[in-house]
Design a protein that fits this description.
Blueprint: H1 10-21, H2 23-26, H3 36-40, H4 51-54, E1 60-65, H5 79-82, H6 84-93, E2 96-99, H7 105-108, H8 118-129, E3 133-140, H9 147-150, H10 156-173, E4 180-185, H11 200-205, H12 208-220, E5 225-230, H13 238-252, E6 259-262, E7 265-267, H14 276-284, E8 289-300, H15 309-328, E9 332-337, H16 347-350, E10 354-355, H17 368-379
Helix pairs in contact: 10-12, 14-15, 15-17
The structure holds (3S,4R)-3-hydroxy-2-oxopiperidin-4-yl beta-D-xylopyranoside.
């Protein structure tokens, strides 16, 4: 016999209840009522309640697979490896997974002459077993680089060889098993200037290294779609303009760049980027694929720590609008949320006072945002 489910902590029970009870007038047109299956067992994800099943053919709904990074400082074991309930939902709900930290330099290349593929392999194997595609993340970035690299004393020739070997080794290892790679991550600042100081590669080797990174990645896995990925590029602005110019430039040089993606770490403090679709279309028009790669929608939490129904409604609207924008653009076929449960979200750790950014509570109860995504996928 299955042991009885432990009683849920009050604060989450409250959220779930309020969200359910108020579904209706408040969520005008955004979320649908909770299906009856959910009332019986809040954790059973019946087929009609699965994002991946609701998605149109060829459209991938993804999530980050939690582990590494900020999780290492939390008092729980590695989520992806140890949390059974989490893994079950990950497999059932999503058709794409992105290693949240497990393919970043500090994780996968901890010493100059040593790679550690264990955590990344586990995700790629899980994805294969569950019929999911994988977004590789990331190869050229200013952050989460190991100390041996950032503080090393290398000549330019050595640095170039280090990057080339890394890309060749990592991309080569997963060749044929990665649908999209974030080759370059966050290479521009908010003004649309290349990060010539923070980014070790651009600082030491010059802007041409970006093109080389794409060339090396393409050589190592000609089937993978290679992306430029950043935050703050949801709208038409200086930063996305800079990407547009860069893409034109790279294409003119016949550099194999295939996609442009917006992370979409959104906050209800700011308005929704209403020109997201228009912006993605600019890249689509150049023949690029587009994607939403790290969507979450954080909010300022009330003192209780529990979002109000109005906050959850607003959040659901943001999620739905981001998805709808992507669905509307022909070659936007990959839509990824940066984690699906507040239990493991990076948001409270990085944004003081903000939280509740994902589509499920800490105990995996689905929020209005989840139902808004499900409904939008079914409509598509
Ligand atoms: C975050 C992870 O979620 C955290 O676990 C980690 O501690 C820091 O990085 N942009 C990106 C992601 O491209 O890799 C970042 O992920 C969030 C912002």
């Amino acid at each position: 016999m299955r042991p009885a489910r432990p009683i849920r902590p009050l604060r989450f029970a409250t959220v779930a209840l309020t969200a359910a009870a108020l579904t209706l007038p408040l969520l005008s047109g955004v979320a649908t009522a909770e299906p009856s299956a959910q009332r019986k067992d809040p954790h059973s994800h019946a087929k009609q309640d699965r994002l991946r099943a609701a998605a149109p053919k060829g459209f991938y709904v993804g999530t980050a697979a939690a582990g590494g990074g900020h999780h290492l400082e939390q008092d729980y074991p590695d989520p992806f490896t140890y949390d059974k309930e989490y893994r079950k939902i990950l497999g059932q709900q999503f058709s794409s997974v992105s290693p949240e930290n497990q393919m970043k330099w500090d994780a996968i290349h901890p010493e100059r002459d040593r790679y550690d593929f264990a955590a990344a392999d586990a995700i790629v194997d899980f994805a294969a077993k569950h019929g999911q595609v994988v977004r590789g993340h990331t190869l050229l970035w200013h952050s989460q680089n190991p100390a041996w690299l950032e503080q090393g004393d290398f000549t330019k020739a050595e640095l170039r060889a280090i990057l080339r070997d890394h890309i060749t080794t990592v991309v080569g290892r997963y060749a044929g098993r990665i649908q999209q790679w974030d080759v370059a991550n966050e290479i521009f600042d908010g003004e649309g200037n290349l990060r010539t100081q923070e980014n070790i590669w651009i600082r030491e080797l010059g802007p041409g290294i970006v093109a080389d990174a794409f060339r090396w990645a393409h050589r190592a896995d000609p089937r993978a779609k290679l992306f430029l990925n950043d935050y703050g590029v949801e709208s038409v602005n200086a930063k996305s303009d800079a990407y547009l110019a860069l893409v034109k430039d790279l294409r003119a040089q016949r550099v194999p760049v295939h996609g442009f993606s917006a992370q979409a770490h959104l906050s209800t403090r700011y308005g929704f980027p209403g020109d997201l679709e228009q912006n993605l279309r600019r890249f689509d028009a150049l023949g690029l694929e587009t994607a939403i790669t790290e969507l979450d929608v954080r909010m300022d939490l009330p003192e209780s720590g529990v979002p109000t129904p109005a906050q959850l409604t607003q959040q659901a609207e943001y999620y739905e609008r981001a998805l709808t924008a992507c669905l509307a653009v022909e070659d936007c076929n990959s839509f990824t949320i940066w984690g699906f449960t507040d239990k493991y979200s990076w948001v409270p750790v990085f944004f003081q006072g903000e939280g509740s950014a994902t589509v499920m509570t800490e105990d995996f109860s689905r929020k209005p945002a989840f139902y808004a995504l499900l409904a939008a996928l079914k409509r598509a």
